[in-house]
Amino acid sequence: MKVMLIAFAAIAVIAFGANYILGQAGFSSQDQAAAPSVRLDD
Amino acid sequence: MFRLALALLLSLTFATMSPAQEAAPAPDRSATGGAQTLEDIMARQRGEEVDNSFRSNALGDPDSAAGMANQLGTLGGSSDPELWRALRFGEANVTSTSRGPAATTLIQDGGMRWLLFRQGPLATYGSYLLGGTLVLLALFYLIRGRIRIDGEKTGRRIERFKAIERFGHWMLAGSFILLGITGLISLFGRKVLIPAFGHDAFSTVALASKWVHNNVSWAFMIALVMIFVMWVIHNLPDRTDINWLLKGGGIFSKGHPPAKKFNAGQKLIFWSVIVLGTSISVSGLSLLFPFEINMFAATFDKLNSFGISAALGLGELPTTLAPHEEMQLAQLWHAIVSFVLMAIIFAHIYIGSVGMEGAYDAMGSGEVEEQWAREHHSLWVDEVKAKEAAAPESATPAE
Predict the structure, then answer these.
(1) 8 Å CB contact of A18 and B215
(2) Are B119 and B87 in a shared domain?
(3) Complex-level ipTM beyond the 0.85 threshold
(4) Sign of the four-CA dihedral B67, B69, B74, B80
(5) Is the minimum CB–CB distance between B166 and chain A shorter than 8 Å?
(6) B213 interfacial to chain A (CB closer than 8 Å)
């Protein structure tokens, strides 16, 4: 039971980690598909 | 080997998708000067296959262009309709300043086929498959009931799975369930959830579900590798599997055929998870990094050259696909294989929980009742006992 909960926590850690790392590495759709002159954030 | 298996699975699936249709003899289009006739339009509206080559090949001829100074000379041998046809059939030479990988595909007509298949047969047969599996499992429970431990319980417990094995299993299981639910939300959003809950509510749900689906996928892939590495050695087929399968795993009879750590049924689950899970992962990666990983044109090329597509009556599969068509096919493949794996996993969850007494402990605490192990994995228990007898009691302190 404990191991199961640790595994579920690991899923969350990996998910947030993947999101952060891919975002930082420029893999967001915005970075991939739009030029810097496109202001999607504003 | 994997590619071949993938190709086979792929071709089997698509075999049901496009019924072979006979091309009609070329109709007379002299009345329209070669353009499409009313009969062409009516045929298309009746859902018949229309040979479009009279349009897709009518793209003008730059070599016969009028001189620049003449009337229409600036068009370079192609009229506007011919230019539009070139765009529509993917033959135009388009350049773009946009960085997007598919920016030069201005018209892509595969999208309609994809949409109709996704909302139609995929959603319909997918839900039949999942619903049917649940009904079958419920029937099985009603008929067979819970598979109990036949013999007297010993009270002794044997370690079946180490903590790291259970960690890998639960990471795979947890991520798969999350991916399954969020995948179904994405697939049934427009057809079911928006009509039921409205656009605003679904927007929030869809955003969250997309985030979860995209990011939890990594946990699934990591766990899939872990499970493969840890358990492949126990899941290689051997002679005991034939006996086990011939006796149907002992499901409807008294007593259970002998099995090692994993019986043939579990091996089937293992290989389903590995093969289908890998296929889902690859098509998922292709969708996660749009237009970067294109698998289908290459796969279709292999299917054509090995004669598999012809043998299945699919004819020559297209080997030139628009970037979007690659993504559409990847999405369909991703969903089809996921539906199959979900159905298999329903059965796995059933037998590992309510379906069999003592089975859950293997993944719960990692330790199983010895009598359960003797009934379901007799050869494995013998191995464990032999190892225990052979190993010196290293834990005993030296005197």
Answers:
(1) yes
(2) no
(3) yes
(4) negative
(5) yes
(6) no
Domain identity same for B74 and B179: no
Closest CA to B176 of B332, B348, B367: B348
- Is B26 among the domain residues? no
CA distances from B196 to A23, B38, B131, B189 (A): 34, 41, 20, 9
Of B98, B170, B216, which is closest to A7 when you measure between CB atoms? B170
Residue A41 to chain B, least CA–CA distance (Å): 17
Tell me which chain B residues have a C-beta less than 8 angstroms from the C-beta of A3: 163, 166-167, 170, 366
Specify the number of domains making up chain B. Answer: 2
Q: What is the pTM of this model?
A: 0.83
With beta carbons under 8 A apart, name residues in chain A contacting B225.
none
How confident is residue A4, by pLDDT bands cut at 50, 70 and 90? very high
Flag whether pLDDT at B13 surpasses 50. no
For residue B372, the domain's CATH number is 1.20.950.20
Same domain, B331 and B278: yes
Write the DSSP assignment of B177-243 as a string of letters: HHHHHHHHHHHHIIIIIHHHH-HHHHHHHHHHHHHHHHHHHHHHHHHHHHHHHHHGGGGS--HHHHH
* Residue B287 three-state SS: helix
Residues B200 and B261 in one domain: yes
- Please indicate, yes or no, whether residues B134 and B212 belong to a single structural domain of this protein: yes
Mutation for testing the A interface, residue in B96, B162, B164, B175 having most A CBs under 10 Å? B175
Q: Are B246 and B239 spatial neighbours (Cβ–Cβ below 8 Å)?
A: no
| Enclosing domain of residue B286 | 110-390
Closest CA to B316 of B301, B336, B298, B296: B301
Residue labelled with tokens 């089975």: B359
Tell me whether residue B159 is in a domain: yes
Among all residues of chain B, which has the CA nearest to that of A23?
B215
| Gyration radius of chain A over CA positions | 16
Q: Are residues B75 and B141 in the same domain?
A: no
Average pLDDT over residues B143-169: 89
Measured from the Cβ of residue B245, the count of other Cβ atoms closer than 10 Å reads: 15
Q: Are residues B127 and B201 in the same domain?
A: yes
Joined together, the tokens standing for residue B182 give 């969020």
Task: Assess whether B223 and B275 both reside in one domain.
Answer: yes
3-state class of B367 per DSSP? strand
Q: Which of B12, B18, B215 is nearest to A21 (CA)?
A: B215
CA neighbours closer than 13 Å in the CB half-sphere of residue B324: 16
Q: Which of B166, B169, B171 should be substituted to probe chain A, the one whose Cβ sees the most A Cβ atoms within 10 Å?
A: B171
Question: How high is the pLDDT of residue B154?
Answer: 87
From residue A20, give the alpha-carbon distance in Å to each of A13, B182, B296. 10, 20, 30
> Does residue B369 sit in helix, strand or coil?
strand
